[in-house]
Amino acid sequence: MARIIVVTSGKGGVGKTTTSASFASGLALRGHKTVVIDFDVGLRNLDLIMGCERRVVYDLINVVNQEASLNQALIKDKHCDNLFVLPASQTRDKDALTEDGVERVLKDLADMGFDYIVCDSPAGIEKGALMALHFADEALIVTNPEVSSVRDSDRILGILASKSRRAVNGAEPVKEHLLITRYAPGRVDKGEMLSVDDVKEILRVPLLGVVPESQTVLQASNAGTPAIHMNGSDVSEAYKDVVARFLGEDRPMRFLDAPKVGLLKRLFGG
Amino acid sequence: MSLIDMLFGKRKKTADIARERLQIILAHERGRNGAPDYLPALQKELMEVISKYVKVNHEDIKVQLERQDNFEVLEVNIVLPENQR
């Protein structure tokens, strides 16, 4: 049975696409047949982050409208044989994304033997975002330790609990996971940033992982390589931990502490 | 913030302000977003029924929905005018 996972946040720019790319790649690296779908109709970007932008021929809307088959539209990832990308359309209007159409695409993907279907949600709470989360079994709530991101995550949690298919059908609720990204432990120590515990306490969602703020993410997106492949970097290690925990492994949280600072710097700040 | 700032108690840390602001606004919004939309209609109909028997003002009827863990409490508060008692 395929598990459908939505990567969502409400707010834009918090790391949904970065997370979708690395999380899907991580599942594939662990041997699971995975597809990652870009639901951001009109503002396609997952293809760039995955480095497959020049291989896009057909997109999600073409498949929904039955103008192309899934086999024609799916792009095989360059790093993992068992990972595929289904890009978003750049031109069509968002109404092209119908509930029936999306449901059929997800069912066809499940029939093709995919273990995991990762849905990269657009920002906001409009149709694309609602379609991305509607069929989800599990949700990664990507949150920055910052007031507007935390508030928007709270809104999205409310929508998951009321508008998802599981909520509408009265089934077991969508399993929620909190993923805190762009975390800067040094700033937390100085009292300039909400801590992991603050965000956990406010949102009351089990923590799946913490990804530190890092220059690696920009370098990865420059190169079109999901950050999880940037071996040796904090971000890569953090995402590998996230995937391992998602698959049920017990791994201690890392990257929660700032590197040690000297006495002089502590006395005079800086 | 340096140790010297802390010794002189310079100012409240912004992370603490952020946490407090979020706790307040989210407690407010969670209640509102989850509220069923029949509350205004319920209030209006209650008003009509009560007005048949007692003369009350619209603002004397308060209908509130409160959430406590696993159950919801619908609180209807009607203030009767003094001279009716």
From TrEMBL, chain A:
<dbReference type="GO" id="GO:0005829">
    <property type="term" value="C:cytosol"/>
</dbReference>
<keyword id="KW-0547">Nucleotide-binding</keyword>
<keyword id="KW-0131">Cell cycle</keyword>
<dbReference type="GO" id="GO:0051782">
    <property type="term" value="P:negative regulation of cell division"/>
</dbReference>
<dbReference type="GO" id="GO:0016887">
    <property type="term" value="F:ATP hydrolysis activity"/>
</dbReference>
<dbReference type="InterPro" id="IPR025669">
    <property type="entry name" value="AAA_dom"/>
</dbReference>
<dbReference type="InterPro" id="IPR025501">
    <property type="entry name" value="MinD_FleN"/>
</dbReference>
<comment type="subunit">
    <text>Interacts with MinC and FtsZ.</text>
</comment>
<feature type="domain" description="AAA">
    <location>
        <begin position="3"/>
        <end position="151"/>
    </location>
</feature>
<dbReference type="GO" id="GO:0000917">
    <property type="term" value="P:division septum assembly"/>
</dbReference>
<keyword id="KW-0132">Cell division</keyword>
<keyword id="KW-0717">Septation</keyword>
<comment type="similarity">
    <text>Belongs to the ParA family. MinD subfamily.</text>
</comment>
<dbReference type="GO" id="GO:0009898">
    <property type="term" value="C:cytoplasmic side of plasma membrane"/>
</dbReference>
<keyword id="KW-0067">ATP-binding</keyword>
<dbReference type="InterPro" id="IPR050625">
    <property type="entry name" value="ParA/MinD_ATPase"/>
</dbReference>
<dbReference type="GO" id="GO:0005524">
    <property type="term" value="F:ATP binding"/>
</dbReference>
<dbReference type="InterPro" id="IPR010223">
    <property type="entry name" value="MinD"/>
</dbReference>
<feature type="binding site">
    <location>
        <begin position="11"/>
        <end position="18"/>
    </location>
    <ligand>
        <name>ATP</name>
    </ligand>
</feature>
<dbReference type="Pfam" id="PF13614">
    <property type="entry name" value="AAA_31"/>
</dbReference>
<dbReference type="InterPro" id="IPR027417">
    <property type="entry name" value="P-loop_NTPase"/>
</dbReference>
<protein>
    <recommendedName>
        <fullName>Septum site-determining protein MinD</fullName>
    </recommendedName>
</protein>
UniProtKB/TrEMBL annotation, chain B:
<dbReference type="GO" id="GO:0051301">
    <property type="term" value="P:cell division"/>
</dbReference>
<comment type="similarity">
    <text>Belongs to the MinE family.</text>
</comment>
<dbReference type="GO" id="GO:0042802">
    <property type="term" value="F:identical protein binding"/>
</dbReference>
<keyword id="KW-0131">Cell cycle</keyword>
<keyword id="KW-0132">Cell division</keyword>
<comment type="function">
    <text>Prevents the cell division inhibition by proteins MinC and MinD at internal division sites while permitting inhibition at polar sites. This ensures cell division at the proper site by restricting the formation of a division septum at the midpoint of the long axis of the cell.</text>
</comment>
<protein>
    <recommendedName>
        <fullName>Cell division topological specificity factor</fullName>
    </recommendedName>
</protein>
<dbReference type="InterPro" id="IPR005527">
    <property type="entry name" value="MinE"/>
</dbReference>
<dbReference type="Pfam" id="PF03776">
    <property type="entry name" value="MinE"/>
</dbReference>
<dbReference type="InterPro" id="IPR036707">
    <property type="entry name" value="MinE_sf"/>
</dbReference>
<dbReference type="GO" id="GO:0032955">
    <property type="term" value="P:regulation of division septum assembly"/>
</dbReference>
